[in-house]
Amino acid sequence: MAARGHSGGASFAGTERTVTEPAETDEAAFARVEAALRTRWPESKLEPSLDRIRALVDLLGDPQAAYPVIHVTGTNGKTTTARMVDELLRGFGLRVGRFTSPHLASVTERISLDGAPIGTGRFVAVFDEITPYVDLVDKEQPVPLSYFEVLTAMGFVAFADAPVDAAVVEVGMGGSWDSTNVANGKVAVVTPVALDHTRYLGSTVAEIAGEKAGIIKPGSIVVLAAQTPDAAGVLLRRAGEADATVAREGGEFGVLRRAVAVGGQQLVLQGLGGVYDEVFLPLYGPHQAQNAACALAAVEAFFGAGAVGSLDLDTVRSAFAAVTSPGRLEPVRSAPTVLVDAAHNAHAMAATVAALAEGFRFRRVVGVLAVLADKDVRGMLGALEPALDELVVTENSAHRRLPADDLAALAVEVFGADRVTVEPRLDDAIETAVRLAEEGEEQLGGSGVLITGSVVTAGEARTLLGARP
Predict the structure, then answer these.
(1) pLDDT by residue (tens digit) across 204-250?
(2) What does the alpha-carbon distance between residue 83 and residue 81 come to, in Å, rounded to a whole number?
């Protein structure tokens, strides 16, 4: 059997097919691959183990070892931090692959090359390349490879094939047994750790931090966002065991100053190698400034800038000014302003509420909320309540969604019945919220709509409102 080499030029023996029927259209091929992926265990159903993904990447020639990796974990802020790291690395002339999850609209978003989602044609080609080896692993393992495991392998292979100079890889869940953890990160980034996915990761912040600490590899550099004492103790202990170098927010790096600016915020960042001033970030909230500080420190660590000096200031400024993070307090419509945000736990919702208050001067805000049933819904509602005048509860299309009536019952306990409206369909909920905001606009001026509660909710709302993919 032909194994995959690191050069990205290796081919798979025996995969040529004689075409006896009309060739697939690009749309049909992509639909075929999406359908095949959907037959696998979803991301909400896990059998914690690295055995399957290790067997697969071994057959593929360990493509994840073909390039240095910046590995990103944490509870919130992972995707945005990964996007910032990607933008910075590309600003310095590197070809970068980025693997993130989940996606907002198309699964191709999860595998990015040169700052853009992989094309559907290349997505199909990579899937077809690795399918013979996926089948082999499925036959040998007690549990077949999951949806996320196959996508992880596809990302690693696409990056090796490109080839990339570096990969930014976001953990799907946890760290220790997440399928991305077959990569040996040169730099490990841990964004703030909070309670989420408690069914799999543990019921305390310390237990969850222990799982996330699994991405810290021997001799790596660890970039730690500010953590609670329980989480910090666990992460620092793991770093010591791995003989890793640690850079901590508030110690070696951080946000020195920030000010609200039109379209975002102006930052002064303390990096590992010096101070970076007049950095404009077109995102809202103190949590995004924190993400920026972590991303900068990670890139400095990657280049060794902490030891040799600071990175070029103009390049850093240009990279941050170009950062986007779809579905993160993203304006998708005006008059009234409609914001879409993917907050899906209480910690993230609190950050969203703080950013909303700081970045937007609304006199009246109407919320649209659709959540997954296995989340801390009461915690999310509690965080939202002070920020909203009215709430429209609804549901998204996820199989784990909380029915609108069940969400309404919880919402009434927090908001009161007079502030809660139920619309089972998301499109109707958005229409109702816009109408309520427009009524407030006439009376008070400065009204807005916030659509939030889940990445699925954010993605579907963006599509309904015609936001750019």
Answers:
(1) 889 899 999 999 999 999 999 999 999 999 999 999 999 999 999 99
(2) 5
